[in-house]
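Hi all, posting the design record for the shared folder.

TITLE: backbone redesign
STEP: 1 of 1
STRUCTURE INPUT:
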């Protein structure tokens, strides 16, 4: 039936200069009065059933709706037909699943919307339509959410992530024409300025020494003088190189997980009359793709070559460019070093900071940032290399930023000893 075809309308009654039309449908056996409302300065009609058989009652209900819509239009409110929150969330999650950066990101979004966001508005605010939620009721949600949780109380930083996820959902609603615009601005909770758990220079030095000893303890000397590598040696070997690479690149743990041999390159430059070799790694994370310039070239070179040799031992041939750097014996990327790392740090008496904060794989990224800033690296350059913002670096690593600027003011710098042989021999550069 054509959109403007009104041949199915019976017993039509017009009110308020044609803005309100009541009619009965010819295709209904027991017709009730239907209403069609036209609002000035808006497109389309609002069509609904009054659910009344009596004309006077139907007129009263329809006029009430007319006046509501007219008032909403005058104050700039949306007139679009909204959608109930529950089906909107279901449709959104179906769409988001196809574009989410990772399964974890999708699961986090699903948890927030289905476990907290939806129940609150249905049970506490009695809001069923997406368009009914305003800034005031959402602020009530944030207050409620801060004291309603499954495992532990959410921090402001965690709530900020939740809010950004909910903003993403609302933007999707805008794209689907469920609301006119994101007019109910959702404020982000104030960010907490926390000094991230990292390692001091002495602690990191202690850890590197302990890791070497810890790895060697998994090699047992036999009675015949030969050495036997215990089953857990491989895990310790991988973890040690994983830590060294994280701490000297500042990459995220998720970026390291999917690092491939073909992502690694080098470049030789003549600087101040000396040839200097740099090692680069292409990574892809939550802020997109970027190329990292590695520090401590000697350490990175040795770690990568040792990882390559391990894979040759595993498979009897050189890895391919598309193979993962941190891989199990079957070539699949290591899922997580979390359990092994916790055990290592616990045995090294470095699991927590002096303030009682637990260190994780991300602590090496924070250590990298702190060390680089302490050595006077430009804030903007460091932010680019780490795939973050200068504002976040300034707020998160304010202690190191202050030190780096003090160094600039006093014009002091610590030069690394010159390496006579600047040639880097990375095996992976020849992988096919």
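Okay, here is what came back for every position:
SEQUENCE:
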């Amino acid at each position: 039936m054509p959109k403007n075809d009104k041949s199915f309308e019976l017993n039509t009654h017009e009110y308020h200069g044609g803005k309100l039309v009541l009619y009965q449908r010819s295709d209904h056996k027991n017709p009730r009065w239907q209403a069609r409302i036209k609002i000035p300065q808006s497109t389309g009609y609002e069509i609904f059933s009054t659910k009344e058989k009596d004309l006077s009652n139907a007129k009263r209900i329809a006029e009430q709706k007319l006046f509501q819509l007219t008032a909403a239009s005058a104050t700039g409110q949306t007139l679009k037909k909204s959608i109930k929150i529950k089906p909107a969330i279901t449709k959104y999650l179906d769409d988001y699943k196809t574009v989410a950066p990772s399964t974890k990101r999708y699961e986090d979004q699903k948890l927030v919307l289905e476990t907290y966001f939806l129940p609150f508005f249905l049970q506490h605010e009695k809001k069923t339509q997406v368009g009914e939620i305003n800034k005031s009721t959402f602020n009530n949600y944030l207050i409620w959410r801060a004291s309603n949780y499954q495992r532990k109380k959410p921090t402001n930083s965690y709530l900020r992530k939740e809010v950004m996820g909910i903003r993403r959902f609302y933007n999707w609603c805008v794209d689907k024409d469920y609301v006119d615009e994101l007019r109910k601005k959702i404020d982000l909770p104030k960010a907490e300025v926390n000094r991230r758990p990292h390692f001091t220079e002495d602690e990191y030095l202690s850890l590197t020494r302990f890791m070497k000893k810890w790895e060697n303890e998994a090699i047992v000397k036999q009675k015949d003088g030969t050495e036997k590598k215990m089953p857990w040696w491989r895990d310790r070997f991988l973890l040690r190189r994983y830590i060294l690479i994280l701490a000297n690149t500042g990459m995220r743990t998720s970026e390291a997980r999917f690092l491939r041999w073909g992502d690694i390159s080098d470049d030789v430059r003549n600087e101040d009359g000396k040839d200097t070799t740099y090692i680069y790694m292409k990574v892809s994370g939550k802020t997109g793709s970027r190329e990292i310039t590695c520090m401590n070239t000697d350490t990175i070179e040795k770690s990568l070559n040792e990882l390559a040799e391990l894979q040759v031992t595993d498979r009897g041939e050189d890895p391919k460019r598309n193979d993962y750097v941190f891989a199990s014996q079957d070539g699949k990327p290591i899922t997580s070093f979390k359990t092994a790392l916790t055990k290592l740090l616990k045995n090294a008496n470095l699991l927590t900071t002096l303030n009682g904060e637990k260190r994780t794989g991300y602590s090496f990224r924070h250590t990298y940032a702190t060390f680089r800033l302490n050595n006077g690296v430009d804030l903007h350059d460091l932010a680019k290399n780490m795939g973050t913002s200068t504002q976040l670096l300034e707020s998160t690593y304010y202690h190191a930023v202050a030190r780096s600027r003090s160094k600039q003011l006093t014009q002091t710098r610590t030069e690394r000893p010159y390496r006579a042989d600047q040639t880097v021999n990375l095996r992976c550069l020849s992988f096919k």
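COMMENT: The CA atoms of residues 69 and 79 lie 7 Å apart.
Let me know if anyone wants the other runs.
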